[in-house]
Amino acid sequence: MKINTIKRHKSFNGETVFASHYSKTTQTEMKFSYFHPGCNEVETIIIWLSGLTCTEENFITKAGAQFHLKDSSSMIVCPDTSPRGLDLPEEHSSYDFGSGAGFYLNALTDGYKDHYRMYDYIVLELIPLLQETFLPKKFSISGHSMGGHGALVLGLKQKDFFHAISAFSPIVNPMNCPWGQKAFSGYLGEDKELWKDFDSCELIKSGNKHHKKILVDQGLSDEFYPDQLLTKNLEDVCQQYGQEVEINYREGHDHSYYFISSFIKNHIDFLV
Amino acid sequence: MKINTIKRHKSFNGETVFASHYSKTTQTEMKFSYFHPGCNEVETIIIWLSGLTCTEENFITKAGAQFHLKDSSSMIVCPDTSPRGLDLPEEHSSYDFGSGAGFYLNALTDGYKDHYRMYDYIVLELIPLLQETFLPKKFSISGHSMGGHGALVLGLKQKDFFHAISAFSPIVNPMNCPWGQKAFSGYLGEDKELWKDFDSCELIKSGNKHHKKILVDQGLSDEFYPDQLLTKNLEDVCQQYGQEVEINYREGHDHSYYFISSFIKNHIDFLV
């Protein structure tokens, strides 16, 4: 497997890098960014999954994570949020489906099933590539909004693999919110039994449990909190099924990267 | 004078705000952003001047400055880089002249002289508005590239007003580089005597001197360093005319915000 370096920017004593590689899973070139602090050996790679409309660029540009990792032995890696360069039915007609909105699942519907396999792409292709390239001792996972959903789902389904799971403003119960229902019916079809495999609340209900506490931050002035994110559903299901979770509800904070940058240090300290 | 708040984002325990106000100087609505850490009394306001193509958004989104100011009593305020909403000759035809490229001077040429007065706008209008609104004890000034030029020029011309001056990758001698020559002939006309009033090297030569050391950071892998930025000219003129200056040449660093975010903490500590 081969990484194509697109841009390199020295950052502190390390570097912020934009790269791509050909993915057999998505059958497209996939982009990702990363920050490497310049350490000799990598202890932890944090996989960061971004939200709707984002690319590999948003987090690495806006979150201020490099400052908190600069003296560490840990990297952060940010994949793009969907395959690109395709022209599938409805792929580019809305912000919450198709390009920029891969939802970190394996699609089953015609057209999408051959490319929109972000779950397998990250677990079976990107992570092995990072393992081979950087030889980290362990991986953790985090993300925002749609990417918070992704972090919870990947973390719970690969519970023995990830050291720690955290999320900002995650879509915790996509089966029960408009964003999730639109995406899951478009990617998975109408059989809701199949949806449960990519819904973090349902995964916990069916016995998936991470050995460590899950860390979540949710802004209380987040416009998507009441209808799309459904944070309380995660809180309830964790309590009921014995998954330890710390959910910090943050007064006045919204859905933006200004919120993420305010608390990213806490998450990094938890994830590394 | 009235500030229109466009967007507010809680950031740490303060807020990142996007605002605008009508400027009599530019005869346009002018935008700016700021971070207020939530302190009761404001000690220092840092004016940040951005570079070519930037708006009020780049620095406040990408530099990670909020983290370093969150426990302080100091704000940072980032004006837009030119008037907007006009349609002057050649105003929108290149990235290095007209919109997004105001060069922090007072234009003399037809059309531009009525609006492109970023020097007066900042000194005579924005700063008084900030004084009246936030009651800071003092102001400092910094900026990047074209905005580094602006910080040096405003700081030297208003040498008794600003507490401290710093710059990242500044265009130190615009009279002698292509970006400056294009801008100065377009805004000031062909009489080069008039250019000297907005060239930091010339200002130092003619006796302008700041009582405090000027702090400059310059990346050595910055593609604009050899032909546009001419950092050595500032170093020479400071030595010759007794202006104290600290110029840090940074191995491997480029012209991007990844460079700025790597050293912004040092600058903030110096400026507050």
Characterize the main sheet of chain A: 9 strands, mixed
CATH architecture of chain A: 3-Layer(aba) Sandwich
**N-to-C SSE series of chain A?**
EEEEHHEHEHEHHHEHHEH
- The whole-angstrom Rg of chain A is 17 Å
Strand content of chain A: 15-25%
Write down the CATH topology of chain A: Rossmann fold
Q: What's the total number of strands of chain A?
A: 9
Chain oligomer state: homodimer
Give the class of chain A from helix and strand content and strand pairing. Answer: alpha/beta
Unreliable spans of chain A are: none
User: CATH-wise, what's the superfamily of chain A?
Assistant: Alpha/Beta hydrolase fold, catalytic domain
Which percent range fits the helix content of chain A? 25-40%
Biggest contact:
A-B, 23 and 23 residues
- Order of strands across the biggest sheet of chain A? 1-2-3-5-4-6-7-8-9
Give the overall pLDDT of chain A as a whole number.
Answer: 98
By DSSP (H or I, 4+ residues per run), the number of helices of chain A equals 10
Number of separate structural domains of chain A: 1
Ends distance of chain A:
26 Å
What best-fitting shape of chain A do the alpha-carbon axes yield?
Answer: globular
